[in-house]
Amino acid sequence: MRNRLTAGLLTALVLWPAVPARALTDADQKVIDRGLDSLYRCDYGGAEKIFLDALEERPHDPPLSLGYAIATWWRMENEFGPAGSPEEERFLVAVKDAIADAERVVAKKTDPEAYVCLGAAYGLRGRLEAARKRWLHAYMDGRRSYKAEERALELDPKLDDAYLGLGAFDYYASRLSHFVRHFMFAKGDKDKGLAELARATHGHFSADAARLLIVGIDWTFEKKPDEAKAILDELHARYADSPLIDFMRLIDRLRARDTEALRRDAKTYLEKAENGAPHFRPIDRAAGHYFLGVGEELAGHYEVAIAEEKAALELIPEGNRARGVPKLFIGECLDLMGKRDEAVKEYKEALQEPQFWGAQRYAKFLLKKPFRVGDNPLPAQSEELE
Prior knowledge:
Layout: H1 2-14, H2 26-40, H3 44-57, H4 62-79, H5 86-106, H6 112-131, H7 135-155, H8 163-174, H9 178-184, H10 190-200, H11 207-222, H12 225-238, H13 243-255, H14 259-274, H15 282-298, H16 302-315, H17 324-336, H18 340-351, H19 359-368
Helix pairs in contact: 1-4, 1-11, 2-3, 2-4, 3-4, 4-5, 4-6, 5-6, 6-7, 7-8, 8-10, 10-11, 11-12, 12-13, 13-14, 13-15, 14-15, 15-16, 15-17, 16-17, 17-18, 17-19, 18-19
């Protein structure tokens, strides 16, 4: 499940905010820097406005079109809406425009920055295809993305931003099963992918995106928790008011089983959301409650934990993809209290919720094997669950 969190949440939120480092004027570069800064602070509306205002002055400019598509992606993902939501439809229009604008420029085959834009746009759309389990479409867009980034580096080997997409593809392809890699002709290369992502951290626009992707890899595959924590601490120093970075630090506390830090930071996160801190949304209150609930679960306070998870559910709308997660935690607590029949009911209800973070897969596992003290509340997909 945690691998789904990493590949789903992290990749979805941060993999593609990499506008290429083209020869921009100072004013243009400030537009892009401001837009990306707004995104990392979760000011989605502000980022959209920045890019739309710039597009009014420079219509069809590939970096600006891509920037706007990225902003609509972040809003879509953070609303956790179902397939076909208005946010998804708006993103699909924006990314289609970004691809078309980039293709008009790359037709001349001389602009490396436009190739980076094209690769990022295809990768962004491919990520949605993968989330919707349209695997062939996802693979095709992934290959288009990879080829465009390769072409960008052929034209300009110093474009470090191009390595973000290459590194993500090479690393995650190496983690696919042998059968899938053979079927898709995608060998992947773990070491090459890591080296490419490290190179992307030197890019002007891809640096923070690459760092966040490395955090997910360190958590799930490379088992480097200290490196992941150091990256998050560095980013928190830069984006101290970002709900996203706060959210990821809560995940880090959970992964480390640092119960006291998790409970403390979850309370702070919840207080920010309840007090209307900038860029916190009503649904962020739910995240505060369910992380606090997990902290109480780890502390052995099961009744308190269940109350927190129920408070989270009250704040998550019907149809929202996040609803299954608190139900899993409630079921875990009930199992720990010896109330297996009630736990099974919660797991079955979680199965009826929209797909999210591998929650349904984990619910099926918990229906076969009761949760016990010492079990991981958010097991990685790479752990044995079958």
